[in-house]
């Protein structure tokens, strides 16, 4: 009887990883027609939130849904599609699919805003539908064309053809920066 060569689980996993090289991205729909990806590098968590758990704030831009408290962290929930100049999420939703990003904050921004007293900020971005995660090679990323709107263009890292769909690859830091600095009108 021949003995099969036994390998360690770590050896088997490294073989799988090498076949699937590249960073992991969250896959979602910004609106019913716009597939998008965002790197998991800054993702903190993905969750569904009941609408009544979001506290609306008066006199805020239309793209800001409100504040949310999760495990002692209070952060904004923003309609990502509306912030990027696309159609807003329907108002009658009972539940929002939210990507929570943990993004580093520059020291100058911490001084300018009393709310930012740490090295990072949590921000929630409501999207039309979460699809899961994908691993993509950086070589598949194509530069973004110049025809995007001035609101959308700074937040797009590029485009990628994935499963016969052209997906926007969004830049998490640029999106958070637009919110923090107020450079985005958040749909107004």
What does this structure look like?
It is built from 4 helices and 10 strands; from the N terminus they run αβββββαβαββββα. The strands form 2 sheets. The chain has a 5-stranded mixed β-sheet. The model is unreliable at 110-114 and 183-188 (pLDDT under 50). The protein is an alpha+beta fold and 188 residues long. The protein is globular and about 45 Å long. Strand 9 (156-162) and strand 10 (165-170) form a beta hairpin. The protein has helices spanning 9-19, 80-83, 107-112, 172-181; strands at residues 24-31, 34-39, 43-50, 64-70, 73-79, 95-104, 120-127, 129-135, 156-162, 165-170.
Coarse shape: globular
Order of helices and strands: HEEEEEHEHEEEEH
The number of E-state strands comes to 10
Helical percent range? 10-25%
Count of discrete domains: 1
Structural class assignment:
alpha+beta
- How would a crystallographer describe the biggest sheet? 5 strands, mixed
CATH architecture: Beta Barrel
Mean pLDDT: 81
By CATH, the superfamily comes out as CheA-289, Domain 4
Produce a short descriptive summary.
16% of the residues lie in helices and 39% in strands. It is built from four helices and ten strands, in the order H-E-E-E-E-E-H-E-H-E-E-E-E-H.
């Amino acid at each position: 009887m021949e003995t099969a060569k036994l390998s360690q689980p770590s050896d088997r996993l490294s073989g799988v990883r090498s076949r699937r090289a590249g960073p992991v991205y969250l896959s979602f729909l910004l609106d019913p027609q716009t597939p998008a990806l965002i790197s998991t590098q800054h993702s903190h968590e993905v969750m569904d939130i009941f609408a009544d758990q979001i506290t609306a704030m008066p006199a805020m831009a239309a793209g800001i849904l409100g504040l949310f408290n999760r495990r002692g962290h209070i952060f904004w929930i923003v309609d990502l599609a509306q912030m990027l100049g696309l159609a807003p999420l329907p108002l009658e939703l009972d539940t929002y699919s939210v990507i929570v990003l943990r993004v580093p904050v520059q020291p100058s921004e911490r001084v300018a805003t009393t709310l930012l007293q740490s090295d990072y900020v949590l921000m929630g971005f409501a999207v039309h539908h979460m699809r899961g995660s994908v691993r993509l090679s950086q070589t598949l990323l194509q530069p973004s064309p110049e025809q995007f709107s001035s609101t959308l263009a700074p937040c797009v890292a590029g485009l990628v053809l994935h499963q016969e769909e052209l997906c926007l690859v969004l830049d998490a830091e640029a999106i958070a920066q637009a919110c923090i600095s107020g450079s985005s009108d958040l749909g107004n």
